Amino acid sequence: MAQLTQLRLLDLRGCRELKIIPPNVLSGLSKLEELYMSGSFVEWEKGGVVENERKNASLDELNNLRYLTTLYVRILDVQMIPKHQFVEKLDRFRIFVGNYGIYDCCHNYESPKALKLMLYTNIDLDNGMKMLLKKTEDLCLEGLEGVKNVLVELNNGKDLPNLKRLHVKNGRHVQHIKTNKIGFSELCFITLENLPQLVSFCSPDERCSTKPLLLSNKQTCHWVTNLRSLIIKGCGKLEHLLSPSLARSLVIPKLEELELQNFGDMDQFPPDLFQHIKVFALSGGSPFSLFPFVRRFYNMERLKFSFLDFKHVVPCKGDAGTLPPIRNLELFSARNLNHIWRKGSELYHILSNLQTLTVLRCDDWINIRAFSSSLQNLTILNVSLCKMTTNLVTPSVLKNLVQLTTIKVEDCTKMTEIVGNEGDCHQTIVVSKLKCLQLCNLKSHRVKIFCSQAFVHGITTSSFLVWKN
Fold first, then answer.
1. How many structural domains does the chain have?
2. pTM of this prediction?
3. Domain shared by 189 and 102, yes or no
């Protein structure tokens, strides 16, 4: 390789067994413009090793590549990164610092400038890393041992003008992400994950506020207008999303995705803050205040519930016509689903436009029964890993699913029938639009598609059945 002095592109991605690159080989590729090593070589020699004692390539060698503009690399220790030179010229980079797995390094990132830092020791970043932070569009910060105010301590409170995605996770001491003075006008995506001491996004500015604000204050709220996705997971001490005075007058016009995990106080969200939400995911927490909150999302199309118990869902109050139409509903590890589908419950009234229903790992769910009349527009039904499901639908339910085109059932170990028995009534059912019936890993030795009471018509030659295991 050392002889390839005119080489402009070197792609070593996915070479997991690559352990040795002799010293000075990389620095000899003087014309190199693009170097791809994600999911590959990580055995970089530490700086300061005497030349004749080096056994492997050093990151310092990259300083000799004057034409290098693209770098995808994984580095185990942030202190291995050389000071300045090669960082200044980078136009495209994916630099992962820390003990990340192969999957993390091979993940498809939308941004051409991604930086992931796993910092489980309290260190000061040198000017080279701070220069990278300024260029970065997709930033993930993990660990942050001893850090309380993330961007103040890591970047001296400087602006991040190119930042579009921010993900901060697994920081046990983190209390704030930024001050009100730090600006990032391009920020579109925020994920806050497993930050047990997080109080607010912005720390209080002693000169203009005494209350912590999560997203902004009146002087710096302009960047909120670009926010498209907000995900909050495992932030149990979070107190303020917005200050009350700002929340009353602010709308986040581009925010389309909101995900909350184990989030207790939904009353802190003002009614008109999320008018344009299209995707809402809720995991854990109490369902009592859930549906009044959902009613605020006038444009919502997709709803996902995970790890919720619906036993105490209250009946619908008020005009059902004000509830948002849902096209896609996903239920993951939810319990007591029979309470959701009761007539009069909140969720029963918002399913009339539902097109896709996915039920996954809901162990006490038996089948679709009482709520079938609200699913007349359902086209796709997916059911997986539901241990207690013995049949999917009864004949009277199936005949109401007039728009159904696809049924997929997988890993339901107690299922014996797709269309189950229902008393002594014999029925003729027309399913003219059903095109796909896919059954996978149903462990019962005798799984029947239709019970003896149902005469099913309308399955054409263009329909198909997939049966696995």
1. 2
2. 0.82
3. no
